[in-house]
Amino acid sequence: MKGLLNHWFKKNKTEEVQEVEEKDLLSSQEEERKEDVQSAHEKWHHEVDALYTLLANYYGSDKLVLKATRLEAIPLIQSDTIQERTAGLLKLILDDPTDRPLPSEEEIPQLLMEIEDHLAELIARRAVEDRLDKAV
Predict the structure, then answer these.
(1) CB of 64 within 8 A of CB of 56?
(2) What does each C-alpha distance from 47 to 27, 35, 114 come to in angstroms?
(3) Which of 36, 103, 107, 118 is geometrically suited to a Cys-Cys bond with 93, CB 3.0 to 4.6 A?
(4) What's the half-sphere exposure (Cβ side, CA atoms, 13 Å) at 64?
(5) Is 103 helix (H, G, I), strand (E, B) or coil?
(6) Which phi and psi (to 5°) does residue 107 adopt?
(7) Does residue 53 carry a pLDDT above 90?
(8) What are the domain boundaries of the chain?
(9) Nearest by Cα to 74 from 92, 60, 59, 57
């Protein structure tokens, strides 16, 4: 009987150790996911800031503010959330005053690429126009 109880207690101890190890593993995986999400958010914030800077350089600060006011994008631009700032960028790039639903976190990378493409087209068009003006 004593041997059976010892065996049972040892088994319970190893099960407890396994449970603790599993919990530690899960919590470390959870922390890694949180760090990955936080890293993605920081990357998006830097990218959005860079796109706003490019827009300000393209239009000029005064014209950009006028355009944002006309499109009712000022609250979106000044927001702290990445979804609202991305929606503000989209309004400015597409010159679209309609209110759209805020993008989900899954949509943000794709939207940022589309915004970047539109902005690249605007800058390229202006560069070609400037070259043609100089040639004439």
Answers:
(1) yes
(2) 30, 18, 13
(3) 118
(4) 15
(5) coil
(6) -85, -20
(7) yes
(8) 40-135
(9) 92
Res 108 pLDDT > 80: yes
The tens digit of pLDDT for each residue in 1-50 reads: 555 445 545 555 556 656 656 666 566 666 667 666 678 788 989 999 99
Nearest to 84 by CA among 34, 133, 48, 128: 48
Q: What is the rounded distance in angstroms from the CA atom of residue 15 to the CA atom of residue 2?
A: 20
Q: What is d(CA 24, CA 21) in angstroms, rounded to the nearest whole number?
A: 5
Residue with tokens 């796109």, as numbered in its chain: 51
To 10 degrees, what angle do helices 82-94 and 61-70 make? 100
Cβ atoms 79, 88 nearer than 8 A: yes
